[in-house]
Amino acid sequence: MKFSNTLVYWYLQNNRELPWRKSKNPYFIWLSEIMLQQTRVAQGLGYYLKFTSTFPTVFDLAKAEESTVLKMWQGLGYYSRARNLHFSAKHIAQELNGEFPTSYAEIIKLKGIGDYTASAIASICFNEPTAVVDGNVYRVLSRYFGIKTATNSASGIKEFKTLAQTLIDPSQPGTYNQALMDFGALHCKPQNPLCVSCPFSDSCVALEKKLTKELPVKDKKIKVKKRYFNFLVIKTANNKTILTERTGKGIWQGLYQFPLIECEKTVNQKEIIDSEEFANLFPDETTLSLFNSKEIVHKLSHQHLYTQFWIVETKTLKNADILWENIQDFPVPVLIANFLKAFEIVK
Fold it and tell me: At a CB cut-off of 8 Å and minimum separation 6, what does 345 contact?
């Protein structure tokens, strides 16, 4: 119990003032945990406040259109989180009468909730002693115990979960879990951890053996795929354009984009005009110009998008039915949102 006691004592002196920590409402805890996956607290805080203001209950979120949810999520990335959040909100509201599941075993059945999120909600809201394991936890435990097993391997995931479960304080599991996460985020940081003032400095294996920079260990990342995107930004004489919703299981499902020509390499203006996709879209005379002089490289987890935005001016176009003044109403990927901001400045 020494580890957990020391950790909780540190937390009581150093914990962050965060709005969701003022509540045991599982809806608010759930929102915060989903939003903070792959997202820093500083970035996610504003989104959390906007969400809870717009959707104060699970019923409010369930009644919203998916496009509205995605628009509010715009800029956070990993949009499957928002779609799963919305799906589960409808399930809770419609199938469970608005009652959030009260145990880890039931919480983890909700779409978009894995072991970490289920453990966090179950421990914080319902006092169930289920240990959380996220990037912060991997880092703290691997350094303190000197564990060199890769955190993203099957054996590593099992090893760290088992260890974390043995350390949790069953009398205050929610406080302990939040303490461990905060300690990793604020003290045992990825770069430049505060080892000199660390309450575990007399028993940390990584500090003793000078392994702080080597731990935690991760297996090599998946090879990054390069993709070459050419967006056709249409402007008609009556100030209309085309946006289409992305479908399927790929990136940006449910978000909107300009007509896209994807190529195997970077292409020039002549190659765009000569393409079959361009000819099919624009049978009549058009003016084509490149907006960005240098390719925009948009980095996702396992792919880099080398992107060019082509401005296409034409008198009329049959499928152009969206007024430019309404374009901000549509949820779009951050790549296109950034373009729209730049385009607004120069047009």
Answer: none
| pTM to 2 decimal places | 0.86
- In our burial notation (b when 16+ CB lie closer than 10 A, e otherwise), range 6-39 reads ebbebbeeebeeeebbeeeebbbbbbbbbbbbeb
Helices 135-145 and 173-186 pack at an angle, to 10 degrees, of 80
Dist. CA 201–CA 211, nearest whole Å: 13
Using alpha carbons only, give the angle 289, 258, 347 rounded to the nearest 5 degrees. Answer: 45
Q: 294 CB contacts (<8 Å, ≥6 apart)?
A: none
198 near 186, Cβ under 8 Å?
Answer: no
33 is catalytic: yes
Distances (CA, A) of 265 to 42, 189, 201, 275: 37, 39, 52, 14
**Token representation of residue 244:** 């289409």
Each residue's pLDDT tens digit, 111-162: 999 999 999 999 999 999 999 999 999 999 999 999 999 999 999 999 999 9
- Cα separation, 260 vs 278, whole angstroms: 10
Cα-based angle 323, 345, 67 (whole degrees, multiple of 5): 45
Q: Is residue 97 exposed (0-12), middle (13-18) or buried (19+ Cβ within 10 Å)?
A: exposed
Q: Which of 17, 33, 208, 276 is catalytic?
A: 33
| Burial class of residue 253 (count of CB atoms within 10 Å of its CB; 0-12, 13-18, 19+) | middle
Please state whether beta strands 225-236 and 240-241 pair in parallel, antiparallel, or not at all (unpaired).
unpaired
pLDDT in tens, 321-345: 999 999 999 999 999 999 999 998 7
Instruction: Report the distance separating Cα 113 and Cα 81, nearest Å.
Output: 9
Structural domains of the chain, with CATH: 2-208 (1.10.340.30), 225-346 (3.90.79.10)
